[in-house]
Amino acid sequence: MDKLVKCDANYVPLTPLTFLKRASSVYANRTSVIYENTRFTWLQTYERCCRLASSLRSLNIVKNDVVSVLAPNVPAMYEMHFAVPMAGAVLNTINTRLDAKTVATILRHSEAKVLFVDCQYVPLAREALRMLMGDSHESIAAAESLIPLVIVIDDIDSPTGVRLGELEYEQLVHMGNPRFVPTEIQEEWDPISLNYTSGTTSEPKGVVYSHRGAYLSTLSLLLGWEMGTEPVYLWSLPMFHCNGWTFTWGIAARGGTNICLRNTTAYDVYRNIASHKVTHMCCAPIVFNILLEAKPHERREIASPVQILTGGAPPPASLLEKMELLGFHVTHAYGLTEATGPALVCEWQARWNHLPRERQAGLKARQGISILTLADVDVKNMETMASVPRDGKTMGEIVLRGSSIMKGYLKDPEATNKAFKNGWFITGDVGVIHPDGYLEIKDRSKDVIISGGENISSVELESVLYRHPRVLEAAVVAMPHPRWGESPCAFIAVKENAAGKTEDVKDADIISYCRKNLPTYMVPKKVEFLQQLPKTSTGKIQKFQLRALAKSFRVPENSTSKKSTPVNKETPFYQPHEHMLALSRL
Questions:
Q1: Which part of the chain is the AMP-dependent synthetase/ligase domain (predicted)?
Q2: What are the tens digits of pLDDT across the range 11-69?
Q3: Tell me, what CATH number does 495's domain have?
Q4: E strands of 38-172, at which residues?
Q5: 89 bridge partner residues
């Protein structure tokens, strides 16, 4: 056997680009993309991607050049997931909810050669480019070298005429060669995309994905979610978020239909589900509230079940139960940018179908088992690197290893080395393993509250708070306590009552509710009400802001429910940032 060698016939580097070429052949006349009144087939999508890749090469884009894009879930954003790597370049999808300074930081760090900008985000891009020019303290020529070539993506369904520079996306597609032969992938370890982390406490880090990792992660998620052929997939999850959890490539692999969505509003989600018989969608738990709180005129009847894959903060069981009653079948996943999106999926077992609905919702709130791409997943004591018992109680840190883990952080060997320890990727998330092998997230390692020697899971406490009928959003962090060292502090956003008021809910109501549903040591010692909780640009609650605020609170030793001094709501903390307003409109 030693004389057997690999050759072009028995070894081809893995890349998700093969999914599109296959779709153009075997699903040629199936609808690939729907965006309002615009439709394409898979053959048309392939030819458009070839044209765009051809035009990028004519603009002197070469192997491993970074091509950035600032756009919502429009057809161009989808096409670039194939066209950019077809030209040999690396795709960098930028979060549209970031501020101009952070966008400029990403463009500078990635050394992007091209920036595609949707017409909706031209003002943001213009400000980011101005900052990028201003950052250079060298010559004008040096400053100009930092500026990528800018290409505007006008709305293909309703053109606006907005421009920033001379080039426009459809112009490049029209000019390109539909018979362009995509750059051959010689090495599957080559980079395919660059995704930046949220950067809530420091500058964002550039996470590099390989062709191999993207290919294997895509297949693993299709299998883990049991996505059959011809899915109708609604893009309620931003494609800039871990390349749409790899479903940008996955829908091509399944010959499905992409329903593109510029704005994730309740009206648009329900309208598209009803119009196109959507079968699948992904979203963060924040979208659940948007759908549940929809006004009567925004709703449409859901004629057949819609499968939802959700990630982010663990959704409370009560929230999952409400979604099921609407007609959405929720599967929970867990992942992070460094793991090419979801790494665990709560794979459903048929025997659970006979359990009470409340028990089913509790099982669905777990993060589950590893996708097939991972070689292993474990929960470990980080001091000894020993695995914790599978008792569903003993907490440790979740660690991963497998082909879907990132190549590393761009230009940051120190952070890369810190993330990889003893052959494992260290997630920074705390969890437990149940006897059946399913993992459940309990917290971020920095969010565990240690009160009088007891470890308190903020996630577990938040889950109880979410079951209160008037709680819209909840976050729990540690605050100083003179006797116990630290104790839980709950920040709450309240649903309006029938009169449109929220003031009728008092901190004593919340604390009393917690006492009935939690051990005494887990009951919050303080409850603070906010109009909305601060969030990152990807919808995660910014607990570091809440922790900073909670540090200023002081509890008398014998106090358990006395309300703290009200915070001055004129301070910047309470001013809705632009990305927070965007989230509220999702």
A1: 22-410
A2: 999 999 999 999 999 999 999 999 999 999 999 999 999 999 999 999 999 999 999 99
A3: 3.30.300.30
A4: 38-41, 66-70, 90-93, 114-118, 149-153, 167-168
A5: none
